[in-house]
Amino acid sequence: MVIFSVSWRNVWRNKLRSLVIITAIAIGVSAGVFIIAFMQGISDQRIESAIKTEISFIQLHNPEFEEAQDIKALIENVSEKKKNISEIQNVSGQSERIVINGMAASAETSSGVRLYGINTEDEFKVTNINEKLLQRLTMFPENSAHEIVVNLDNQEFDKVVKADIATLFPELEIKLWTEIKPELAYLTEVMGMYMYIFVGIILFALGFGIVNTMLMVVLERVKEIGMLLAVGMNRMRVFKMIVLETVFLSLTGGFAGIIIGSLVSQYYSVNAIDLSIWSEGLGAIGWGSKAYTNIDFETIISITLMVIATGILAAIYPAKKALKLNPADALRTE
Length: 334
Hints:
By secondary structure, this protein is α+β, with helices and mostly antiparallel strands. The protein folds into two domains: 2-50 and 184-331, no CATH class; 63-171, no CATH class. The protein is 61% helix and 13% strand. A five-stranded antiparallel sheet has the order 3-2-4-1-5. Strands 6-7 form a two-stranded antiparallel ribbon. α2 (15-55) packs across α9. The longest helix has 41 residues, at 15-55.
């Protein structure tokens, strides 16, 4: 415990220098936390929008419809199936749909479209487009549909609910939203990867500043370190002392940055960031003109561990320099 106390006191022997590097770390980490929260927020919004307005959490299809988009490949006895699904825990709503693929054309261009015939009474339970009234298609048999979509109370139980539905209806093809639109699941993975790369770059740059600061500390205390070695202090304890000083320096700035970044992210999780200046371009790729930040506890823990790792790695070179000091030569240093 003594070495911890000594290392902490050593951090504040030169308050100005320590405050400068701590401030730099805090600014870098807080910026990283906010950028992660922003990227995570817009990613979650895109997925939520797709689930709420189009695909829902789970879809049931006739396997033949999925394979060839054959409009005759219907799910029969829809009412009974919906009743059975509604009894499954964590299901908050279900609705049947008629699906027709077509083409919209003008004098200049054409584009593929997908038309949905919905049950206007049940659709609002699985999407938020219930304000738009669509007429029921009458060319298909009653009590049949191309797909049944299922909404959940909690996304965490999607695999469990899918398994329960599969047990009830083994003849149907059942897919999660991640299987229906794998690009959305991939978006989450890519965002996560880029977020940590971004924070890694910030910490890598800050690491050079930390190394430089600790080298200055070692050079200023050559005589002191030489004296400690001369009176019999173990070289490994000197190594630990330098490493602990670096980690304390990094953690102080890191914690300050995490707190600042989290507070700013919390503010913008309620008060949207206005992106209306880019609304046209964002709308073309399915993004909204307002962004809300979002960051979870696991991400904060990950950033904290990355800060600690940066501190330890940045301490190795200065600490090795201290270990190479010859006590006799160090004591003669002016």
